[in-house]
Specification:
Structural class: alpha+beta
Radius of gyration: 48 Å
Shape: rod-shaped
Length: about 250
């Protein structure tokens, strides 16, 4: 039996060797295909272009959105009803405050805040104001005949406003448009007042100023704070001037 096994082993080894030779020859007969380098490069370039287009498209979209918002805002601000779209910071408080040393055109009845407790306004028939020293509104007319509007003139009213403060105001009238008003005080100071006027050039308006004068406040007798009030036009000419009575 052992001799039979030894006789089979060489034939099995020979068969295995023959199969290896057949597979080797078959492998030599197979020619590998060329690597498609050009196709791979084209596919890579296509993918890169797609990514670039997507990034550029996103950037353009981000730019278009703000531009569209700006265009919408401009269209709304210039279109019908735009006055209702002003920002909260642009809306005037009522009553409004006028900067010192300026000329301001106001509408009839528009309240202007001189101080927290003093307000002044104009109507077509004259000057109105309210203050702690005078309950209710005060009035100075330009139509009752007490003012001679045929020539230039300046009126002066004076009220204590607490502490050393005084509220000075009055109606001016004359030819030309007011550009500023100066108040020469009894203490030697020059104060720039504020001018209020109505639209349409009525040739009259109202001036006012807040003046501090400790000496007058400590005096036992009524003292006129304003020595002179002068209204000037834009060229420096005098529209109206007066000297208050001591």
């Amino acid at each position: 039996m052992n001799r039979h096994r030894r006789s089979l082993r060489p034939s099995a080894e020979a068969e295995a060797e023959r199969l290896r030779e057949v597979f080797t020859e078959a492998a030599y007969d197979v020619t590998p295909s060329a690597v498609p380098l050009a196709a791979i490069e084209r596919a890579g370039r296509l993918r890169k272009r797609r990514r670039t287009t997507a990034v550029v498209g996103s950037a353009c979209a981000l730019l278009v959105i703000p531009l569209a918002v700006v265009a919408l805002r401009e269209a709304l601000s210039s279109g019908p009803g735009a006055e209702h779209l002003t920002s909260p910071t642009a809306v005037r408080a009522s009553p409004s405050a006028a900067p010192k040393g300026t000329v301001r055109v106001v509408t009839p009845g528009e309240r202007v805040k001189v101080s927290p407790d003093i307000k002044i306004w104009l109507t077509e028939d004259g000057q109105h104001w309210s203050s702690p020293g005078n309950p209710g509104s005060q009035f100075r007319s330009v139509t009752d005949g007490n003012l001679d509007l045929s020539g230039p003139g300046v009126g002066v009213q004076q009220e204590g406003a607490g502490g050393y403060e005084y509220f000075l105001s009055g109606i001016y009238h004359g030819k030309g448009d007011a550009a500023r008003v100066e108040i020469d005080t009894a203490g030697g100071a020059v104060v720039n007042g504020t001018v209020l006027t109505l639209a349409g050039g009525p040739h009259w308006g109202v001036w006012y100023a807040m003046v501090s004068d400790a000496k007058a406040a400590e005096s036992d007798r009524l003292t006129s704070i304003a020595r002179r009030v002068t209204v000037y036009d834009s060229a420096g000419g005098v529209v109206a001037s007066t000297e208050a009575t001591r």
